[in-house]
Prior knowledge:
three-stranded antiparallel β-sheet, single chain
Amino acid sequence: MFQWGIFLIQLFRAACQVLAQKPFALHFPADETSLFQAVQLNAKDIVVTPTSIQHNVPAWSLFGIFFIILPLSGVILQERDQGVFTRLLLVPGQQFGLLFGRLFAYLSLNIVQFSLMLLIGFFILPLLGTDVLQLNGKGLSFFVVALCSGLTACGFGLLLGVVAKSQQQATLTAAVAIVISAALGGIMVPVYMMPSVMQSLSVVSPLGWGLEAFQILLLRGGTLHDILPQLFAMLLCFALCVLVSWRQLRYLK
Length: 253
């Protein structure tokens, strides 16, 4: 099992290297940019930037998805403090049941929350003067990205709930990790507006992976095949968190 952990870590590093080779700024030929806001750099290349609705709805949806870490880790810690977790662990073969039971519940909440955010982009924000969010027939792909992002968030929540020593430690760690990851990933300030050093650091942010996947679908007209590196990185992060959580559960018995 330790060798599996080393293997997953190596895969995670390889995924980050692949993502680092693909800058977040989206480049298009001039004849493909009629629907987007563009700033011309030279005669050959045009950097296409998302509109406010194209950036904010996916970005803040991801931010909300990752805040599921706080209640998930808090519930696990509360059950540990009350002894419920320990009693359940005494039942043979219950480790995976404990992990995935909570995973399914909180992942379902994430999908409902994401659906509500899309509805706001479709119906509420246009009433305030913004453009209507257009998925361009990529609705299913959007939910695949949301699902992978939710798995990553829930995986970290499980890990934090199992590893943390107290509610205060879990809350502080989760809040700091989410805000830093959001800042690096372009949730607050788009990555293409950041200095080059910050753009290089953004490839390690799970929120950045999700946001880049959304923007590839929205701005490039990409398909699931085009966002496989981002999906793979998120699923690998999830698998690593679950593996470490499962190993830690063996020592909580």
